[in-house]
Design brief:
Blueprint: H1 4-22, H2 28-44, E1 59-62, H3 68-78, H4 84-88, H5 118-137, E2 149-153, H6 155-159, H7 161-172, E3 178-184, E4 187-188, E5 191-192, H8 201-207, E6 211-217, H9 221-233, E7 239-244, H10 267-277, H11 288-294, H12 297-317, H13 319-329, H14 337-351, H15 357-368, E8 375-379, H16 383-386, E9 405-407, H17 412-425, E10 429-435, H18 439-451, E11 457-461, H19 479-484, E12 490-492, H20 497-509, E13 514-518, H21 530-535, E14 541-545, E15 552-556, H22 561-573, E16 578-582, H23 586-590, H24 594-600, E17 608-611, H25 620-623, E18 628-630, H26 641-647, H27 652-660
Parallel strand pairs: 1-2, 2-3, 3-7, 6-7, 8-9, 8-10, 10-11, 11-13, 12-13, 15-16, 15-17, 17-18
Antiparallel strand pairs: 4-5, 14-16
The structure holds thiamine diphosphate.
């Protein structure tokens, strides 16, 4: 029978050989954490390789995602659909084994990791999702939502500021089923961390109200086992298991040095490592008995089948709950969602008033959030300003997880990465608010929502100089362009209640992130017929037509649409006929067919103006080089907003003057 060290060495060998073959990668962490991974994956983790999506599986996150080969080796050895040929393709074009773990690319990978610290935040989100769903759906004798979330982190994850944001919350929320393994190897890329990372990590986590298990020898199976048992037993505190390990364990010259961190060990060192580990198999050759010992397929199948039996009984006893949970797992919106929201939009056209779009957004939530129990709202301490709380929302606290609203505190990045964790966990749709200007703080998590195509909704209010007196630090300028430049994100900037309602409807119908940019200030309601209302969801549409012929086109979004319409009306009085195109979502407009785009923006109309209180860059594709963008290319000002608009020339008179010139 293979010894457990040999089983761990299979991970080491696969990692060093795949990285050597790829001529790039990070062998140190996989080799250092192999013993921990072997104990966790063979003795504790509850997953079904035959069905990686089984809902009640334990979640595993490799937050130190550069150690990707560790996860690939684990998945391969455990029997997931990841062959030895796939491992040989590590880091190659279109392989199932990309350079860092990517959701959707590899069966068994739960979230995309690599940007350090965010996997840990995703893990907090997953553990939170488990707790919220358990509170809603579990019944006595029917703990149908009941799993652990395991996260591996390195020094890098714990140095990143986001680890503070999310671990503070995990402690506050008593996330007892979150178990984090700290790979305390004393090394990061620049060398020994003792010169840049001297926190007392155990004390730091105790201060967050975590259970901390210190001084575990990460190469000693008995100690690792004991630590996991103690972690699982503690239902009221998340656990940090601090494991002392050697980076590159087994490599005689490179272990314990930064040389093992991020480059192939090299043929000579690999040969010596084979000797030292007593591993005399050829690259990518794993003895049958080692495969057998690792194989989790039967156990996983049995675990899922036991759960299926439990769920079948649950379904009999609690048919409504079972049906509801399945609906959410399958990402189905309530059957009448599209119809009801469409009717609401039509009514709004006559019933709504001039308003701030953040208020319109809150009105929409008041109407529909109660009908969407999968929505988990929240804000980074700007609830009142963002308008994210709706009537009847249940606020989450450590004593109440039967909830759907989260006060994240002042933690924009943490909130956003936790929302990614909630979304990838499944059965929930998170949305969270902050000011648009602080999208910068959340930025890389928004990027990961986009890479992973997760339905995470960012409510970003105070979307321009229109917020007024708070001044340049609070007035977004470059943010709209930055968000639009991010692939897979729909950036909405509605101009009134009707567009705001369509925006929410579309954000919920889209499998991917949406950013909702909303005003602080009141803006004018626009008039539309039914066809125009129906065209809002196309991202851009003709809102106002000056006359039969089109002398010029003004494009605008959000608060600047009213400037465009008033300017067009003034010009109409002077027999200059201007079409106004409202473009609440440029990303979606660009996806429309050429015929529609050409109909909205006829190519023979060259005189074009765009108005948007932000960086002008994204508009030149629509106005052309001869066109004019009324935008802002400097930081804002502290003053009543009407004065700032005048100061920056974003006025009806300036637009009229340019079009007449
Ligand atoms: C946010 C972020 N910043 C920087 C990097 C680049 N990077 C990858 S690994 C690493 C060092 C991580 O050190 P540690 O967690 O101790 O990993 P180990 O050396 O133990 O493998 C850095 C800086 C990254 N992946 N993410």
């Amino acid at each position: 029978m293979s010894s457990r060290r040999e089983l761990a060495n299979a991970i080491r060998a696969l990692s060093m050989d795949a990285i050597q073959k790829a001529k790039s990668g990070h062998p140190g962490a996989p080799m250092g954490m192999a013993d921990i991974a072997e104990v966790l994956w063979r003795d504790f983790i509850c997953v079904n390789p035959g069905n990686p999506q089984w809902f009640n599986r334990d979640r595993f996150v490799l937050s130190n995602g550069h150690g990707a080969m560790l996860q690939y080796a684990l998945l391969h050895l455990s029997g997931f659909d990841l062959s030895i040929e796939d491992l040989k393709q590590f880091r190659q074009l279109h392989s199932k084994t990309p350079g860092h773990p990517e959701l959707h690319d590899t069966p068994g990978v739960e979230t995309t990791t690599g940007p350090l610290g965010q996997g840990l935040a995703n893990g907090v989100g997953m553990a939170l999702a488990e707790k919220i769903l358990a509170a809603e759906f579990n019944r006595p004798d029917f703990t149908i939502v009941d799993h652990f979330t395991y996260v591996f982190v390195g020094d890098g994850c714990l140095m990143e500021g986001i680890s503070h944001e999310v671990c503070s919350l995990a402690g506050t929320w008593n996330l007892g089923k979150l178990i984090v393994f700290y790979d305390d190897n004393g090394i990061s890329i620049d060398g020994q961390v003792k010169d840049w990372f001297t926190d007392n990590t155990p004390e730091r986590f105790k201060a967050y109200h975590w259970q901390v298990i210190e001084n575990v020898d990460g190469h000693d199976r008995a100690q690792i086992t004991q630590a996991i048992i103690a972690a699982q037993k503690n239902a009221t505190q998340p656990t940090l298991i601090c494991c002392k390990t050697q980076i590159g364990f087994g490599a005689p010259n490179k272990a314990n040095t930064e040389e093992a961190h991020g480059s192939p060990l090299g043929d000579a060192e690999i040969a010596l490592t084979r000797k030292k580990l007593d591993w005399d198999h050829a690259p990518f050759e794993i003895p049958a008995e080692i495969y057998e010992a690792w194989d989790q397929r039967k156990i996983g199948e049995a675990e899922e089948s036991a759960w299926n039996t439990l769920f079948a009984k649950y379904e009999q006893k609690f048919p409504e709950e079972a049906h509801e949970l399945l609906r959410r797992i399958h990402k189905d919106l309530p059957a009448d969602f599209a119809q009801k929201t469409a009717e609401y939009v039509e009514n709004l056209q006559s019933s709504s008033k001039d308003n701030a779009t953040r208020k319109d957004s809150q009105n929409w939530l008041n109407q529909f959030a109660p009908q969407l129990p999968e929505l988990i709202g929240g804000s980074a301490d700007l609830t009142g300003s963002n308008g994210t709380l709706w009537k009847g929302a249940k606020v989450l606290s450590k004593n109440n997880f039967d909830a759907n609203y989260i006060h994240y505190g002042v933690r924009e990045f943490g909130m956003s990465a936790i929302m990614n964790g909630l979304a990838v966990h499944g059965a929930m749709i998170p949305f969270g608010g902050t000011f648009l200007v602080f999208a910068d703080y959340a930025r890389n998590a928004i990027r990961l929502s986009a890479i992973m195509k997760q339905k995470v909704i960012y409510v970003l209010t105070h979307d321009s100089i229109g917020l007024g007196e708070d001044g340049p630090t609070h007035q977004p300028i470059e943010h709209i362009t930055m968000l639009r430049a991010t692939p897979n994100v729909n950036v909405w900037r509605p101009c009134d209640a009707v567009e705001t309602a369509v925006m929410w409807q579309q954000a919920l119908l889209t499998q991917g992130p949406s950013c909702l940019l909303l005003t602080r200030q009141n803006i004018q309601k626009q008039h539309r017929d039914l066809e125009q209302i129906n065209n809002i969801k196309k991202g851009g549409y003709v809102l106002f037509e000056g006359g039969e012929k089109i002398d010029a086109i003004i494009l605008a979004t959000g608060s600047e649409v009213e400037i465009a319409v008033v300017a067009a009306k003034k010009l109409q009085e002077q027999n200059i006929f201007v079409r106004v195109v409202s473009m609440p979502c440029m990303d979606i407009f660009k996806q429309q067919d050429a015929q529609y785009r050409g109909w909205v923006l006829p190519s023979d109309v060259k005189k074009r103006v765009a108005i948007e209180a932000g960086a002008p860059d994204s508009w030149y594709q629509f106005v052309g080089l001869d066109g004019k963008v009324f935008g802002i290319e400097r930081f804002g000002l502290s003053a009543p907003y009407q004065e700032i608009y005048a100061e920056f020339g974003l006025t009806v008179d300036k637009v009229v003057a340019w079009l007449k010139a």
